[in-house]
Amino acid sequence: MTVYGIDFGTCYSCIAVAETGREPQVIPTPQGANTLASVLEFRLNREGKPRVGSTAKNAITPLSRNVAVFMKTEMDKEESALKYEVRQGEFRAISPIEFAACIYKELFMQAQMQREANCENTTDRAVITVPAVCSEIQREKTKIAAEQAGINVIKVINEPTAAAISYNIAEGEAIMVFDLGGGTHDVSIVQRLSDNNYQVIVTNGDANLGGKHWDEKLIELTYQKLGLPFTGSILTHARMIEFEKHKINLCTSDEISFAFMDDSGIQHQVEISLEEFEEFTEPLVQRAIEVARKSAQDALKINQNIAVNRICMSGGACRMRVLKRSLQQIFPKMVVSVNNPDRAIATGAAIYALSMVEQGNGNYDIHVTERGHAYGFKTIDGEGKPVIQNFINISDPLEITSQRVRRYMSSTGNRQRLTVFENTEDKSVFKWRGETPFFDSDIEFNTERSVGTPLDIEFKRDADGLVTIVVNVDGDRYDFSFATTAGSISPVIIERTQALMKLMEKQ
């Protein structure tokens, strides 16, 4: 049996292969790199034929409008905020599904061609990964993008879970997976309950924290040292790519020196020490460490006897030395491991993919129990303040067959807005912070209701993620249903994605 594991990343992506009786291995790019730059270029002299990877990345200039990056964190959006030149003189917004499909397609084609050239087995089956903090819509759209690229997606699992599998933790051992990628940050506590049974005890994360945010701060520090005015408009794709190289150099050097041309065309020579950079980015480090601290605390709330003895780091941004040092200070009793962090997720996904196709074979039969998302209503608390009260908790199984009843307070008179919020909170009630609703619909009562009138709400969720909600008010019944997946994707987006896939296949 042959299967792939694919890590689609904000800045870099990776594909690994697993085969029966052989150690899993990462499939390098034609240039020999273990990762592929998640950069998409529309080649204007080739009918807009997409090009992905380091060549596309090197094509970025301050004026380029045909190169797209950093779109992984926008998977819940229909289209990009920017318009790209997809053909000569033709500008339009692109869907994150189009972008992701191109990355998947390039990884898939490179793997197939390389294995065919080596007379090795090929496959279209793969397990793909997503950040633990991503929404169900982002998860579903990522899966659709991979399928449009011709990949038979066996399953979608969380990135920290895949990393935990690749670290091959011992039976009974619990580890913390500290996953800092290019655009998102996840921390999970994972325990190997038995030989092949992995359970995610708790997951926390920051969907707006990743390596690119350190790149942004390095740009800001450079402008500050030169006494130049700094604004958000300076953070162009070209600048970000330029300074990512300097950040990478600071992962192994104590000081860097580089030439820098400002927006006026004046060239400067800049010197920045590791100490300066670490001091300037300390708030980012603390944000990342706080997620780890909260995960450790939450795990103890769930199981007071759990003993986490190791921190396994994944994601290329984990090569910044300050992160390992800070973790060792906060968790002095834990061993911190940094072992090929940019390859761990794809490798773990490949191992898990092999376990799925080899079920029944004890050497590969891995079972993973992950935590999903919680769903809550916006309501009012005893002080009249808006809160979100979860009716499906993060620890609940996907399928809730028996109807449960919750009582909520109405916040209006004869009209109630039934608003559902997706979240990863482990609290049953928490302050509403202006979040965007996942689903909402109006209920118009037959009679005037006073503020605070209780509503009895029944709900259930089936194995496909369809949630059914029934609101009962004094004998009146109101029915609602919604799916916790992306649902239908615009036919236009699918058509555009398929056109891009055909272009990529053309020689």
User: What is the CA–CA distance across the termini?
Assistant: 30 Å
C-alpha Rg (nearest Å): 24 Å
Classify the beta-strand content into a percent band. Answer: 25-35%
Estimate nothing, just give the exact number of structural domains. 3
> Average pLDDT across residues?
88
Binned, the helix content reads 25-40%
Structural class: alpha+beta
Give the C-level CATH assignment of the largest domain: Alpha Beta
Outline the fold blueprint.
Elements: E1 2-7, E2 12-19, E3 25-26, E4 36-37, E5 39-43, E6 49-52, H1 54-58, E7 67-69, E8 83-87, E9 90-93, H2 96-117, E10 125-130, H3 136-148, E11 152-158, H4 159-166, E12 174-180, E13 185-194, E14 197-206, H5 211-226, H6 237-250, E15 255-261, E16 267-273, H7 274-280, H8 282-302, E17 308-314, H9 321-330, E18 335-338, H10 344-357, E19 367-369, E20 374-380, E21 386-392, E22 400-409, E23 415-423, E24 429-431, E25 439-444, E26 454-461, E27 466-473, E28 476-483, H11 491-505
Parallel strand pairs: 1-10, 10-11, 12-17, 14-19, 17-18
Antiparallel strand pairs: 1-2, 2-3, 2-4, 5-6, 5-7, 8-9, 12-13, 13-14, 15-16, 20-21, 20-23, 21-24, 22-26, 23-25, 26-27, 27-28
Helix pairs in contact: 2-3, 2-11, 4-10, 5-6, 8-9
